[in-house]
Amino acid sequence: KMDDDDDIPQLSSHTLAALQEFYLEQQQREGMKTSQGFNQYSIGSIEEDWQLSQFWYSDETALCLAKEAVLAAGKGGRIACISAPSVYQKLKEQDGEDFSVCILEYDRRFSVYGEEFIFYDYNHPLDLPENLLPHSFDIVIADPPYLSEECLQKTAETIKYLTKGKVLLCTGAVMEEQAAKHLGVKMCKFIPKHSRNLANEFRCYVNYASGLD
């Protein structure tokens, strides 16, 4: 009887070593991504997922919105970011500033941020953990994932539940009337930019005297 093993192609020890090295490098790269992402909250560590309608802000825009949120929240303030991870990541880079922040996000990759991450699906706007008390955030920054009134209306329920009053909404220019209707926010002069150009004109809306005008 022939030895069954003869039919199985054997990799040479050289090829095997090269393959192992390749896998090791890949693992290290992945590992580096998570550790860097964890330490520096760098936007590059988690790539945009267009299937989830994710579009990151440019660095300048994310920083500008993060600084605005810190000012609006005040000393010791609490900030909630709904579907706005690039602003959250900029907030985490503001070392030594006195505020706390939560990220409500559908994309579970952001769970690397630990307890500050809250899984959020706008279809269930009030399906929130018990420790997220009503009106417990000084400002809520939200960027609803879709340009539809339904998405805005449902996200607005979450925003109104969480905020003590201040709202910073980022959405398309076409949503101006609905934003006023559901959240009482007005368009700012500041024009947010994305790291990749979007087809729809994008704007910021607030319901308080902000530094974005």
TrEMBL record:
One of its GO terms (biological process) is methylation. One of its GO terms (molecular function) is nucleic acid binding. InterPro entries: DNA_methylase_N6_adenine_CS, Efm5/EEF1AKMT1, Mlase_EEF1AKMT1/ZCCHC4, SAM-dependent_MTases_sf. It comes from the Eukaryota. PANTHER family: EEF1A LYSINE METHYLTRANSFERASE 1. HAMAP family: Methyltr_EFM5 (MF_03187). This is EFMT1 methyltransferase.
